[in-house]
Amino acid sequence: MHQLPLEEGLLACETSALMGGDGKVRRMRVVLPAVATIVAATTLGATVTVATASTDPRATTAVSTHPRAKATAARSRQRARAARAHSLIDPAASCGVSRKRDPKDRLKVVGRRLKDTDGNVIVPEGISIVGGPEERDYAAAEASTDAQIDAAHAAWHVNSLRLQVSESDLLGQPTPGYGYDRPFADYLSRIICRILSYHEIPIVNDNTWFTGGQPDPTSTTVAFWDYMSVNYRRSPVIFDLFNEPRLKRTRSGRPLGNARIWRLWKRGGTVSGVHYIGMQSLVTDIRKRFHAGNVIWVESAYETSHTADLPGHLLSGSNLMYSFHKLRLNEPATWYAVGKLAARGIALVDGEWAQYAALDRPWECYGDAYTSAPAYLAYWKRESVGIEAWSLQYGSLAQAEPGAVVHDGNYGDFPTDAASLEVPNSMSSDYGCNAQSLGQGAGSLVMSYFKQNTAAAPRALFASGS
């Protein structure tokens, strides 16, 4: 048996074996995943045994061209997938939805519209939760997460809520006997079920900004979506693949160049010794490994700031929407450039929009927002493009004392009083990105926009099964 060269993370071996009574020797090439186990393929009396210790969850097994060998290999792959799925099952994640049958009503993307099974158009309008499952100290943040979910439901007229989730928290230290961290997974399931109980659509986003730090998806991201696919494929949970892909340079700081950045974004590849997974592979994995048909949001390269370049890099697959963030509020031409994609039939959503006074966050504070923010919202209303506003904390969307500073990520002290988060802040006519304006923001504008425009998600999406 001879080991063959192959990409990192897989092991290929080649051997010779008698295939039946004709005495002929046939060669067999075997590519195996990292399961640290021994696989035996028996074909017409010849047995080939191969051992491997790779760790790539994307790997597959391919054995011989003989029909029996193919069937044996297929059964081996099926058993491996079943074992992998079993290790990822979280009993708490069902939220009362049957694991054995598909729901009668499902979200789907038709043309550039999000619809349910009956053809009702759903424009996702909601809030992106801050902190919580994206933090290192997630256990201390549950009260804040619950307060944001409760306030959004009670006062903000949302039909969806976006959760940014740390793949490192879920997978970095698996509980013995499980393929994931059980306490974190239980916390995650509680907040997803809480959103579903309000008949609102959870949007789960894989976020590495505050834990892990990977600029683009890796094998950990694949494992994250394996977990989500196993546990939420029969729920109306939207999968937001990876927050703000940002692989633009080598470890030494050398720019990668535009063509390579987009190629890595779509197809993956190795940079500075790190293997990154392309968005197309993530989509294919979700669809084929565990047959999850959930709607998928895809964020483009350059932290989603180059969405207008998407037409040359669109992914293959169904039920896909493309999410953009932080368009330049003072340059309407940037809105129109993205809006042209909708005119071409591409499904779009503004997955994270914010406007509040800040001294050090120029991508979320524009001095002319008092007039440009209403125009921005009105533009996307005309285009029927949904918006997830960031974030339900004092000074961003919620009313705050003058001088309030907005925080992100691992801050650790986000509000826990839901009632106080039901009161929006606002912008005065002299609003600006200065110390005098701190505490002001687009809260009243967003609340009014959602109240006037948001349609509730159909109740049938949330029906439990047995």
Please explain how this structure is put together.
This protein has 466 residues and is α/β, with parallel strands linked by helices. The chain folds into two domains: 2-84, no CATH class; 108-459, Alpha-Beta Barrel (TIM Barrel). 27% of the residues lie in helices and 19% in strands. The chain is built from ten helices and 17 strands. It has helices spanning 67-88, 142-155, 167-171, 182-197, 219-232, 258-267, 279-288, 332-343, 369-382, 443-453; strands spanning 2-4, 11-18, 25-32, 37-43, 46-52, 108-110, 113-115, 125-128, 160-165, 201-206, 238-240, 268-271, 274-277, 296-299, 320-325, 348-353, 386-390. The strands form five sheets. The protein has an eight-stranded parallel barrel with strand order 8-9-10-11-14-15-16-17. Strands 1-2-3 form a three-stranded antiparallel beta sheet, with no helix packed on it. α2 links the parallel β8 and β9. The longest helix is centred in the N-terminal third of the chain and has 22 residues, at 67-88. It is globular and about 75 Å long.
